[in-house]
Amino acid sequence: MGRPRTPLLDRARITATALELIDAQGEFSVPQIARRLGVQTGSVYHHVDGRDGIVELIRERVAQGIDSSALDLRPWDTALKAWARSYRAAFAAHPRAVPLLMTNPVRAPRVLAQYEAAVVLLLASGFALADVMPVIVALENIALGSALDLAAPEAMWELADETATPRLAEALAASAGNRADRAFEFALEGFLAHARRRLEA
């Protein structure tokens, strides 16, 4: 038999399969990937640097959805706002990947390049070196938390008896519709306002 025209296994197929598993069940294993692709587990390891290598391939795949050109915008707060919205949208497409990616060190060169661009932006805008990473991590926390929130039900509070929590019932009624989007914008504006004050100080 000759070789198949389309290879059974490559990094792109491994990444796509792992991401499908994560989207479905929140986790993946190399044997699961192999079974889905119809190959031996050992064959997968010929294409990737173990499980951690697959995690980084997933990170790169998800991060492709982030508009890194947003970091070229000026002024800095316009750039961070656009980057945060794009960041949130990219991870909202794969919310179950968030816990996995956030508990593994970032090694993917293309992802690190985005962080480099963010650091350069903040330093050029006058932020103290010691403040740069707290600003970036805080912005990530807002974007990733909201990405998870987008995957949650619109009605997160179920009141069996509204008379027991009447003010909560009123607040929920007053904020109905686009809960996650409104909360994200509220947090983002508050974060940027604090960052502006920090910069001015």
TrEMBL record:
What are the protein's UniProt keywords?
Answer: DNA-binding, Repressor, Transcription, Transcription regulation
Gene3D superfamilies with a match to the protein in the record: Tetracycline Repressor, domain 2
**Coiled coil start-end:** none
Protein biosynthesis found in the keyword field: no
Annotated PROSITE patterns: HTH_TETR_2
GO annotation (BP), single:
negative regulation of DNA-templated transcription
Instruction: Identify the Pfam families for this entry.
Output: TetR_C_1
Q: Which residues bind DNA?
A: 29-48
- Domain HTH tetR-type, by residue range, is 8-66
Q: Which GO terms describe its molecular function?
A: DNA-binding transcription factor activity; transcription cis-regulatory region binding
Q: Which InterPro entries match?
A: Homeodomain-like_sf, HTH-type_TetR-like_transc_reg, HTH_TetR, Repressor_TetR_C, Tet_transcr_reg_TetR, Tet_transcr_reg_TetR-rel_C_sf
Keyword rRNA-binding among UniProt keywords: no
Annotated protein name in UniProt: TetR/AcrR family transcriptional regulator C-terminal domain-containing protein
Q: Which organism is it from?
A: Streptomyces cupreus
Lineage of producing organism: Bacteria, Bacillati, Actinomycetota, Actinomycetes, Kitasatosporales
